[in-house]
Design a protein that fits this description.
Radius of gyration: 13 Å
Helix content: over 70%
Number of helices: 3
Strand content: under 5%
Number of domains: 1
Number of strands: 0
Order of helices and strands: HHH
Length: 69
Amino acid sequence: MAIDSDAEQVFRENYAQELRKKKQVELEDERKKVNLQGMRTPGRRGEEIKHEEIDKEIVRRYKLSQKVS
């Protein structure tokens, strides 16, 4: 993972907050949308950040579900 600039860090934090508000189905749809955009324009930093944040949110939700069980 590359060191984020200030603008990237703000983008990452805002996107992470947006993901926390989404339901599981919406999160899966967001992943599909980001994957499609990544195929159209590979290598864009924004898509890389979105992938990382979606992965983090999925792991966060999994860990929370394991604590509850």
